[in-house]
Amino acid sequence: MVHEATGRCHRDFEEALAGAGLPLARANPLRARRFAQSMGRNAKTDAADAAVPARMGAALDLRPTEPPGRALRDLGDLTVAREALARDRAAALNRRKGLRVALLGQQCRRRLEQIDRQLRAVEAEIARVLAGDEGLSRRAETLASIPGVGKATAAGLLAAMPELGGLDAKAAASLAGLAPVARESGQWQGKRFIQGGRARVRRLPCMAAVAAVRHNPDLGRKCRDLIGRGKPPKVALVAVMRKLLLLANALLRQNRLWTPRAGDEPAAAPPAEAAEEAGGPSGLGEGSLGDRSQGPKGQPPARPASAGAQPPHGTSDLLPAPA
């Protein structure tokens, strides 16, 4: 059964099919539309919309999609709500700077107090959902053990990219939209750009990467080397974001916490222009899940990797030796 993702409207449909034991595959609506256009079908009717996914599933051999469990679904709703509140808070803080009318200042202050209360409530619920699911709790702990990745970023990554840990390096980078896409024709070689993927996943590691270049020795060296070779600071930051995502993918796959290499010291802060060029989302609100830049922290003992296990291809330069 092939269907298009329709926001929250397809949830009941997926759960009903899964409950009946029927395999289903969720298709990207844009890809389904492009598939219809590739067949020369521009009409959009109920009959056409039903036939196109069926033909698409047969032609592309789409893999079955496993509907998310209740805990993961709730975590997704909560992290989206938290990000919306964080944006509201940043907007209110910016608006307050230019207010000159006392009434508007009072309303803005009360609005900020309300947002802070709601943020604390949502963060407490996120912590409760994670604590109630042993698998999610362990995965969140693994992600939060990486210097630069806070609890809020860890929860957001788990909700927006549940496939993390079950993909190879190339697939993970492509799904997040952090893989440079080649542009070549004959002898001409164009500049490569990242594109596609899940925009929300791509936003999450941005500020985490800024913290990681300061506190993760491997990623700090990577950033400084790229800038030293003449790469723009934002290009260096995107490369660090990709490495950070691949590191998270590898650690989840191996089911172990991040541990520093022997002799590694925290990386020095990158050039000031790197942080300025980084841009990215503003602070995400304060509370138990406040996603501020994290420095080196005492790590719990790592679980040893299985004997003879090797890091996934493309991440060996980032992963410390197993404890």
Helix share bin: 40-55%
Strand content: under 5%
Write down the overall geometry.
globular
Q: How many strand segments?
A: 6
Structural class: mainly alpha
Low-confidence stretches: 266-323
Mind describing the biggest β-sheet?
A: 2 strands, parallel
Q: Please state how the strands of the largest beta sheet are arranged side by side.
A: 1-2
- H-E order: EHEHHHHHHHEEEEHHHHH
Structural overview:
The protein has 323 residues and is mainly α. It has 2 domains: 58 residues, no CATH class; 234 residues, no CATH class. Helix content is 55%, strand content 4%. The strands form 3 sheets. The protein has a two-stranded parallel ribbon with strand order 1-2. A two-stranded antiparallel ribbon has the order 3-6. Helix 4 runs antiparallel to helix 5 and helix 12 packs across helix 13. It starts with a strand and ends in a 45-residue tail after the last helix. The C terminus is likely disordered.
Short account of what is shown:
This protein is 55% helix and 4% strand.
Looking at this protein, list some descriptive labels.
disordered C terminus; 2 domains; two-stranded antiparallel sheet; single chain; globular
